[in-house]
User: Fold this.
Amino acid sequence: MSSLRVTLVDVGWGDSILIESSGESDNSKPLYALVDSPDTPYLQSSYIFLKRHFEKKGVKIPEDKPLFEFVLLSHPHSDHYQGLKTIMKEFGTRNFWYPKSTEWGSAADLIRFATVSSNVQHHQSIDDTKLIPKLGDVDIKVLWPIYNQPDSTNENNNSVVLSLGLGSMTFVLSGDAEAEVWSQISGKLSNTRFFKIPHHGSINGTFDSHGNTPWLNSCPNACLGISSHVRPFGHPDQKVVQLLDANRREYYRTDLHYHITVETDGTGVEVKYSHV
Assistant:
């Protein structure tokens, strides 16, 4: 049976999201992808999670390199990119994808690494015109950035928004895209069954300048997940939490539920969470 699993890793701050796809055959090899890692030399939450996860699955490194079909940097902020170099070096990836950006800063080192490293087979910036190969039976689409859309000076709004589809189920990974992005692409969310709340549940990821919530009613049947960033920013914001409670939405947050795994066989959605 085909399956899609998305795990919001409890990294304490920022994002790190493991994607797993299994095919219909019991003998088919699972496929893996990763979105973001905020690890530092002193705090390696996503790396430790991945290493333990793959050890449990009997994955052998370096024999099984490249392990990832793709690694995606949603946008070049430190709480999303700092750990990716180590992870690509350790596990390898067939593709490294990232958005166009106006201010790469120290994140530009990732591009230099991808250019010369034997652990990265291909790298390029992506937008909604990029045809992404399927991850097993999972269809992958870029909802944002839109081709020829001017790069924003707000890097959050350059975030790659990714859609993962299996059967009638669609999962959407939102990066830190803020409300002005959702006002433009919310019409593409109607079939979404899992939606990662943008920008760690911050005010600007949900409310626009008029107090509207562009994504909230666009995916009424979606289970919601928050990669929390409690310190130092206090995300999720209490106003967002109150909004979700008032609308009786089902949601999970890494600061309360730890590692959050959302799984589908293409017909329904199951959510699990744990410390390990």
The helical segments are 45-56, 78-81, 84-91, 108-116, 179-185, 203-206, 238-246, 254-257. The first strand starts at residue 3 and ends at 8.
